Amino acid sequence: MDIETVLIADDHALIRNGLQQVIEQQNLYNIIEADNGKDALSIIRDKEPDVAILDIEMPGMTGFEVAKKVHKEGININIIFLTMFKDETLFNKAMDIGVKGYVLKENTVSEIMNCLKAVMNGKYYLSPAISDFLVRRNTDLSTGATDKDGFNQLTPTEKEVLKLVSEMKTSQEIASVLNVSIKTIQNHRNNMCNKLDLSGAHALLKYAMEHSERI
């Protein structure tokens, strides 16, 4: 069985140590630690762990800032947020940027393994104590803009790329506008095609042109 690599980023050593002890008992994961957001981002870029467990509130960069950078750069990683706040607005923002797990710190030790297993199997996980947040979010989506074609699955950065595609910009031009590499833009294009179930050389451009008012 392959050993997965997990980054634990939290400025509280007690939290990091507690998580490390629980996770290492399974003998399924290699653990890397960071005590601030900037170091966490550097580790994600250099080591490319499979999962990053990020405290929302960290010195240097917040968990949100790290997650946004990661997704903007097209890095393929599963992100789990740790938080002490039962805040529905924060939860919705986390879901909007593609976070896969959302765990309350008060339940971290007891829930982290279930969260890791779910996320590594391509599923989402959130603490049961805030499950009503997800119910309301799903209700809002179903009663509002029904996502028949996967558009609402796109991250904010992907929507930004899609808008530039609709303006007939090339990958090179989009990379220059967003100040990222062409490879990153190609990753975004591939991810969007998968989410929108598109195939063919010009399918994404056609979709972008047809939905330009929606972007």
Descriptors:
single chain; 2 domains; globular; six-stranded parallel sheet; 6 strands; Arc Repressor Mutant, subunit A; about 220 residues; alpha/beta; Rossmann fold
User: Could you say what the CATH architecture of the largest domain is?
Assistant: 3-Layer(aba) Sandwich
Q: How many domains? A: 2
Average pLDDT confidence is 88
Distinct helical segment count? 10
| CATH top level assignment of the largest domain | Alpha Beta
Structural class estimated from helices and strands: alpha/beta
Q: Please tell me how large the radius of gyration is.
A: 18 Å
**Fraction of residues in β-strands:** 5-15%
Distance between the termini: 42 Å
**Contiguous uncertain segments of 5+ residues:** none
Largest sheet: 6 strands, parallel
Q: Could you give the order of the helices and strands?
A: EHEHEHEHEHEHHHHH
Helix percent reads: 40-55%
Strand order of the largest sheet: 2-1-3-4-5-6
- Anisotropy-based shape: globular
What is the CATH T-level topology of the largest domain? Rossmann fold
User: Would you count the extended β strands for me?
Assistant: 6
- CATH-wise, what's the superfamily of the largest domain? Response regulator
